[in-house]
Amino acid sequence: YAPQCAYCKHIWNRIINLKILIQNENKKKIYFGEVNCDDNSGREICKKYDVINIPQLKMFKGNELLSTYSNYINNETFIKKWIYYVTTPIFYNIHSEEELNSYKTEDNIFLICSENLNEDLIKAAKLYYDGNYFLNIKNEEMCKKLNIEQNHLYVKGLYKHDTYNLDQKDFESLKSFINKNRFPLVNKIDHHNFFNTRSSGNNLILLLLDLKTSYNSYISKFTKYAEKYKNLNHFIFGFIDGYSYEENLELYGTDSRKYPQIVVFSKNPREYYFENYFDLDHINRIIDDILNHKINSKTEKFTKTKILLIRLKKHMTYILEKAFKTDYISFFGFLCSIILIVFTFILMIHTIYKFINKSEYNLEEKYK
């Protein structure tokens, strides 16, 4: 921090609150300190550890820098989550249900009951443990109660997931299983998690809804499809409030008047799928067409001109549809207005043309 940074003082008050909260949980021994990047000793420390912007949090274990945090730094929940992820080993040993229940998260949790963790499992977990908890249950009774077999990886979430048999000894298959199941079966997408989900290496089947209306039946139907395809690698399911992100989503060809609609964001960067039949009733066909390459992906190339044309088309369509849905007198008035505008435009062009010709004629007369 720096003394002249008023925002830093505000953040430090939040950190103090967080310190008390963490210590009261009796879960981890975390010590908090502060470094003034403006004084002589502090300046050297900040330079040594590449402090480019302030305020910034850095986590140390002894002299070892473990992690740096500067995103959403005014949000205590995110900071707490970051602290727990960094200080938790890849697999954290659990001995009681109370310990297990203390891991409260909207994300899925991976559980295993093992004395000797598989090397491939540790390697795969390293790729994703900053976003999910991996817990090793050391209580045999708990393992029986949770129905977790030895050498099986179990996913704990809102919905029932299949377990993974580690005897398969297939690293790519294991990595794919973890990558798919680290997200909820049906994930609510917003601007906080969209890019993380989008860049996960999975095809994201995204349901666009109007959350201001009754939407539970749509999500229920969508969830059944997600359960049906839960073992299909590289496909994950999510829904989004389409109206909140309407301007962005319409660039992909969607139309808020036709919600619920589906957009599929490809596992390949900057590619997506969208066709006129992409709706809730055609998910089987959508997945089949993508898997069998019956439809081609589209590339996200949204130039300013393209964005302008898309929005112009939307407004023109809206005007025309409104015109055709009104009564005959209003529609006749609309047509008359269009004709009047056209004739006015022609008259303007004609007047300008005559004025230019007259000016040229006067100049010629003057020179003569």
From TrEMBL:
Offer a single GO CC term for the protein: endoplasmic reticulum
GO MF term (any one): protein disulfide isomerase activity
Spell out the protein name for this chain. Protein disulfide isomerase, putative
Q: Where in the cell is it found?
A: Membrane
The answer to whether keyword Membrane applies is: yes
SUPFAM superfamilies the record matches: Thioredoxin-like (SSF52833)
Matches recorded under InterPro entries? PDI_TMX3 (IPR052250), Thioredoxin-like_sf (IPR036249), Thioredoxin_domain (IPR013766)
What Pfam families does the database record attribute to this sequence?
Thioredoxin, Thioredoxin_6
Q: What kind of membrane protein is this, topologically?
A: Single-pass membrane protein
Instruction: Tell me where in this chain the Thioredoxin domain is found.
Output: 1-79
Q: Keywords, A to Z?
A: Isomerase, Membrane, Transmembrane, Transmembrane helix
Q: What is its EC number?
A: 5.3.4.1
Transmembrane stretches, start-end: 328-349
Q: Organism, per UniProt?
A: Plasmodium gallinaceum
User: Into which EC class is this enzyme placed?
Assistant: isomerase
Q: Which PANTHER family match?
A: PROTEIN DISULFIDE-ISOMERASE TMX3 (PTHR46426)
